[in-house]
């Protein structure tokens, strides 16, 4: 869990898979997790058990858990329950009229809410005014229908900056490294991505080629160079 990045962009993993989350946490660059009913259903575990296991893996992170009701009363009831499970949980609520009504009440109770499925700057403006802790514009899904998701992200960042809203912008539905880099350049607070996209950020063919060349050269000269690490006591046995 990365706790040294201050106000810089945070990385969330968009998954409910324990192995993926554990692997990401061990890298030291994952600050949280976003889940949704689809991702949770894939894991075949009781919902509460799974969310709490994720919280244990990221003790200083943020774990997003989504309501499934569509009416405001149901969202408020589920939101209060989810928030009671662990202090690191942020409640995800969809961008609907009922969702905004539930958001307003829950935010007033001090519950942190991430409004998901945001597809317009107008929607982002509404949820910021209603007290959202996080808003999640879905970039990739806009790209899928021939719109530029990065344009939406740019508009939201401009509106939030101009109006000094405290709502954090979470760039969601990121499909490739360009989405992540452009979101970082715009100053998005959070980028959530599948594990495969996080893995893509590590990759460059020149890195692979360079490492391969270095290791080949090392093998050729190994007899002269020796080993970087020696068995305990080996140096002492060799004498001064």
Beta strand %: 15-25%
Q: Report the total helices.
A: 12
The assigned CATH architecture of the largest domain is Alpha-Beta Barrel
Helix content: 40-55%
Shape: globular
- Strands of the widest sheet, in order across it, are 1-2-3-4-5-6-7-8
Domains, number = 2
User: What name is given to the CATH topology of the largest domain?
Assistant: TIM Barrel
How is the biggest beta sheet arranged? Answer: 8 strands, parallel, barrel
Cα Rg: 22 Å
Overall pLDDT, averaged? Answer: 91
Secondary structure tally: strands:
8
Listing every helix as H and every strand as E from the N terminus to the C terminus, the arrangement reads EHEHHEHEHEHEHHEHEHHH
**Unreliable stretches:** 1-6
N-to-C CA distance: 43 Å
Written overview of the protein:
- The protein has 2 domains: 10-202, TIM Barrel (Alpha-Beta Barrel); 207-238.
- Helix content is 54%, strand content 15%.
- The chain has helices at 18-27, 37-43, 47-57, 72-85, 97-108, 121-130, 139-144, 149-163, 177-186, 195-202, 205-225, 234-238, and strands at 10-14, 32-34, 62-66, 89-94, 113-118, 134-137, 168-171, 190-193.
- An 8-stranded parallel beta barrel has the order 1-2-3-4-5-6-7-8, surrounded by 8 helices.
- The longest helix is centred in the last third of the chain and has 21 residues, at 205-225.
């Amino acid at each position: 869990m990365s706790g040294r990045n201050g106000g810089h962009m945070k990385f969330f993993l968009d998954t409910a898979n324990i192995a993926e989350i554990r692997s990401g946490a061990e890298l030291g660059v994952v600050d949280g997790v976003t889940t949704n009913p689809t991702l949770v259903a894939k894991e075949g575990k009781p919902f509460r058990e799974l969310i709490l296991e994720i919280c244990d893996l990221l003790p200083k992170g943020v774990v997003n858990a989504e309501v499934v009701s569509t009416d405001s009363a149901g969202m408020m009831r589920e939101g209060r329950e989810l928030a009671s499970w662990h202090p690191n949980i942020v409640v995800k609520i969809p961008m609907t009229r009922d969702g905004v009504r539930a958001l307003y009440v829950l935010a007033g109770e001090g519950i942190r809410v991430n409004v998901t499925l945001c597809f317009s700057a107008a929607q982002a403006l509404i949820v910021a005014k209603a007290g959202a802790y996080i808003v999640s514009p879905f970039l990739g899904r806009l790209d899928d229908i021939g719109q530029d998701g990065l344009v939406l992200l740019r508009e939201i960042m401009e509106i939030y900056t101009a109006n000094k809203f405290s709502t954090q912008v979470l760039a969601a539905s990121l499909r490739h490294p360009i989405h992540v880099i452009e979101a970082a350049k715009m100053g998005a607070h959070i980028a959530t991505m599948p594990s495969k996209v996080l893995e893509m950020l590590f990759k460059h063919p020149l890195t692979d080629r360079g490492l391969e060349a270095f290791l080949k050269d090392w093998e050729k000269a190994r007899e002269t160079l020796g080993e970087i690490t020696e068995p305990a006591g080996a140096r002492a046995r060799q004498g001064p």
